[in-house]
Design goal:
CATH class of one domain: Alpha Beta
Helix content: 40-55%
CATH architecture of one domain: 3-Layer(aba) Sandwich
CATH superfamily of one domain: P-loop containing nucleotide triphosphate hydrolases
CATH topology of one domain: Rossmann fold
Shape: elongated
Strand content: 15-25%
Strand order of the largest sheet: 2-1-3-4-5-6
Number of helices: 5
Radius of gyration: 38 Å
Structural class: alpha+beta
Distance between the termini: 127 Å
Oligomer: single chain
């Protein structure tokens, strides 16, 4: 699998729709200073899911949108689309039968960012997961930019290990393991919270049961008191009436 072409529109210096073709497996982008060489690299990293504006040589994600010049007005959005030749079936799963894979990312000045995989709306996670372990990604070793070689030479053991794992194709399995462990940890926390809620509800139930028992006992006492008062009143009334009756 290899990158065959890029379509750029409104991205940094590429204000007009532009298509850059990559006819072979090894391609170098050369040109004078300021011609946009680094913008091509930034475009690839950005559409592959890069979320750090610093790694795209900007202060915010809005900086990737063409901001105007002395002769051109700013544009309201930017879009990049990458096309990959998958005729060798490198990407397996549901995309194994596709000879070409396209991924696209768009962003507007209001901060809305969208991802598309073969023209179908998707998540950033879908794109990063698809290419994980292939050497392609927002900060992969497959894209050699200015300073990349020196970073590889001066890389710390942890950084070098990540490059080796990516080249060996095991990074995606480690990422799946990390996600599974995270879900298990979250599940344990949810179970602990449920246990706390259960204990609290059981305490409230016991308290309400005690209140119900007290109310029931009070109700019975009130009923007996009412009956006694009625009996006492009736007895007194009978005695008083007996005093008024004439003797025979």
């Amino acid at each position: 699998m290899r990158l065959s072409r890029i379509k750029l529109a409104g991205f940094k210096s590429f204000v007009d729709p532009t298509t850059v073709h990559f006819p072979s497996n090894l391609v170098g982008v050369v040109g004078p200073n300021g011609c946009g060489k680094s913008n091509v690299i930034d475009a690839i990293r950005w559409v592959m899911g890069e979320t750090s504006a610093r790694h795209l040589r900007g202060d915010s994600m809005e900086d990737v949108i063409f901001n105007g010049s002395s002769s051109r007005k700013p544009v309201g959005s930017a879009a990049i689309e990458l096309y990959f030749d998958n005729s060798d079936g490198t990407l397996g799963g549901q995309y194994a039968s596709y000879a070409e894979i396209s991924i696209r990312r768009t962003v507007s000045r209001d901060g809305t960012s969208q991802y598309f995989l073969n023209n179908t709306r998707c998540r950033r996670k879908d794109i990063t997961g698809l290419f994980m372990g292939t050497g392609l990604g927002p900060r992969s070793y497959a894209i050699i930019e200015q300073g990349m070689v020196s970073r590889l030479v001066d890389a710390k053991p942890e950084e070098m290990r990540s490059y080796i794992e990516e080249a060996a194709g095991i990074s995606k399995y480690k990422e799946r393991r990390r996600e599974t462990e995270t879900r298990m940890h979250n599940t344990r926390e949810n179970l602990a919270r449920l246990a706390d809620l259960r204990d609290e509800v059981e305490k409230q139930i016991k308290h309400l049961q005690r209140q119900a028992q007290v109310a029931e006992s009070t109700g019975r006492s009130s009923s007996r008191n009412g009956s006694l008062k009625r009996s006492s009143w009736l007895s007194g009334w009978r005695k008083s009436m007996a005093g008024w009756l004439p003797s025979v």
